[in-house]
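Issue 218. Parser rejects a valid record. Input:
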Amino acid sequence: MADEARKRRDASWLGRLFARDHKAFAEFVDRYKETIFLCCRTLGLREDEIEDVASETFMAAYKGIGRYRGHAELSTWLWAIAYRQGVNYLRKESRGLWKNRRENQLLAEDDIQPANNGNRQALAGLESKEQTELVWEAVERLPKLWMMATVLFYREGKEVKEIAKIMQVRQNTVKTYLFRGRKRLKELLASGEDINVSR
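Output the parser choked on:
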């Protein structure tokens, strides 16, 4: 019963959002601003740049909401916009991180272990808050594309096909990012080196 009521509320809210109702859009920003900030931080944007990219993301979402067809979750659709806005910003700033996409692309390998719920539960099932924080600090040390895939898969709960849409790469490439990210995380955590990083 409560589920049905929530679905009706969500459908009504989406209808108002599609009609570009300002109050519904304000709620949309409030619901998803932390998601956008997470995307921007994962891409390596500085705090002073995040506000600009977040504003551009929400403006693009507002203009493009009529094209949203519900084939993906609204959060996945918004992640894809934020990712594109962030990457475009970095390219425009000529930071070098995204200049040559081919250098950043990793070809799929035959020995890739597909991402599955067992892997996700292994990361989610850490025993203590300290261990969890340690792992996420280590995630911040990964190459940006590996980190993005890891955050989307483990923290945001996105499936490989959703991540592929967001990052505009093949599903096998996402699996590669996740495989190499997990491998590097194991190395970092096993080495015992100081992995605290500034947030």
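Fixed in the parser; the record now loads. The CA atoms of residues 139 and 147 lie 6 Å apart.
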